[in-house]
Design a protein that fits this description.
Order of helices and strands: HEEEEEHHEEEEEEEEEEEEE
Oligomer: single chain
Helix content: under 10%
Structural class: mainly beta
CATH topology of one domain: Porin
CATH class of one domain: Mainly Beta
Number of strands: 18
Distance between the termini: 42 Å
């Protein structure tokens, strides 16, 4: 399968080179991005004694911000082929300062992208509906914030249905044209690494013994969208296979990831649900199931929404060390957004989070969070 995919990619590349096409104009660069900021905190929370965290040791409020700058440029060749590139620079201090960088070729055949980017599952994913671009019960909802401290007791501060196996790895992604509302995507990742120029660890073709790394990943996704006399329907899903779990002393099966979602919109209302099922992600056969539902209502310039997600997490083993016990994490988010102008909004959040360990001894957590912030697109 891998050889066939690589072979077809090489043939396509040769076809593009042989097209003898020239651009009437050079590549035109454009700049975009976003700025997100929020202030918020905890109105009340409770850590179980087994969590080892005292309520007094955690700050009650926080200021947060996130900014990204995107650089993109494209040119239409004389034969109609569009060629371009995209670079996304994160403005805050991140381990991964350049989050996405890829080139693309598009035309009547669809769109082919090569570089550091989301796989097919994450690229075509819809989350649980939220009124806000920066708050919500389902993460990643754009690049959102929350103010829950559940991550201290358990796996993390948020549930998410769009993570995928290999986000931002260097990979090949193909998007089909839209056929009667249907669109498909496929992606392949030979090695789950990114930001690679030439050698990595001295190996020009990459080592095959990186601990806990899921490599040789194939993702397939599909989505259907249609307007039925004012009723907007979106439904889709994806599945990802990882054919190589590197440095696998416990002989765990290869990781797999599935997701599904739907949204129905009518008369200002949007109702939807989403789920993601991640299997064999760690050194043991730990699985994670996240699902949820939500509704929003929009009337200019306001949008309000209510969303809920639940994460059912099995105990992982990372680096030979067992993580928190099996647990269930519920998150309920009431969100609101007021549009000040095109691409500018003021958003609000009221959130209840509850982390409950399947072990009677805990650790457990529950808290009520709130926030107000702004999203600015440019």
């Amino acid at each position: 399968m891998r050889q066939a995919l690589l072979g077809s990619t090489a043939l396509m590349a040769l076809g593009l080179v042989a097209a003898n096409a020239e651009a009437a104009d050079g590549v035109k660069l454009s700049i975009g991005g976003w700025y997100h900021a929020a202030a918020g905190g905890i109105a009340g929370e409770d850590f179980s004694q087994s969590s080892g965290v005292a309520d007094s040791s955690v700050r009650d409020y926080a200021f947060k911000q996130n900014v990204g700058i995107s650089f993109s440029g494209e040119s239409v060749l004389d034969n109609g082929l569009t060629v371009g590139a995209y670079v996304e620079l994160r403005g805050q201090t991140h381990e991964d300062q350049i989050r996405k960088v890829y080139a693309y070729f598009s035309g009547g055949f669809g769109k082919l992208q090569f570089g550091d980017q989301d796989g097919a599952l994450a690229a075509m994913c819809y989350t649980v509906p939220s009124a806000s671009k920066i708050f919500g019960a389902d993460s990643p909802a754009v690049y959102g914030f929350n103010f829950s401290n559940a991550g201290i007791a358990g796996y993390g501060a948020t549930n998410g249905t769009c993570y995928g196996i290999d986000s931002y790895s260097t990979q090949l992604v193909y998007f089909s044209p839209v056929f009667s509302g249907f669109q498909f995507a496929f992606s392949f990742t030979p090695d789950n690494t990114e930001d690679t120029r030439n050698t990595l660890g001295g190996a020009g073709t990459r080592l095959k013994n990186d601990v806990r790394q899921n490599s040789e990943n194939l993702s397939m996704a599909g989505v259907f969208t249609h307007d039925f006399n004012g009723v907007n329907l979106t439904v889709g899903g994806a599945h990802t296979f990882s054919f190589n779990k590197e440095a696998n002393p416990n002989n765990v099966d290869g990781a797999q990831d599935s997701n599904a979602y739907f949204q129905v919109g009518y008369a200002g209302f949007t109702i939807g649900g989403a789920m993601e099922y991640r299997q064999n992600f760690f050194e043991t056969s730990a699985d994670q199931l996240v699902y949820g539902a939500g509704v929003t209502y929009a009337w200019d310039p306001w949008t309000v929404g209510l969303g809920w997600t639940r994460g059912d997490y099995e105990q992982p083993v990372v680096g030979g060390v067992a993580g928190p016990p099996n647990a269930v994490y519920d998150d309920i988010a009431l969100t609101a957004s007021y549009a000040l102008g095109p691409g500018i909004s003021v958003d609000g959040l009221l959130e209840y989070s509850r982390y409950k360990s399947n072990d009677a001894a805990g650790p457990d957590y529950q808290g009520i969070g709130f926030g107000i912030g702004t999203a600015i697109a440019f």
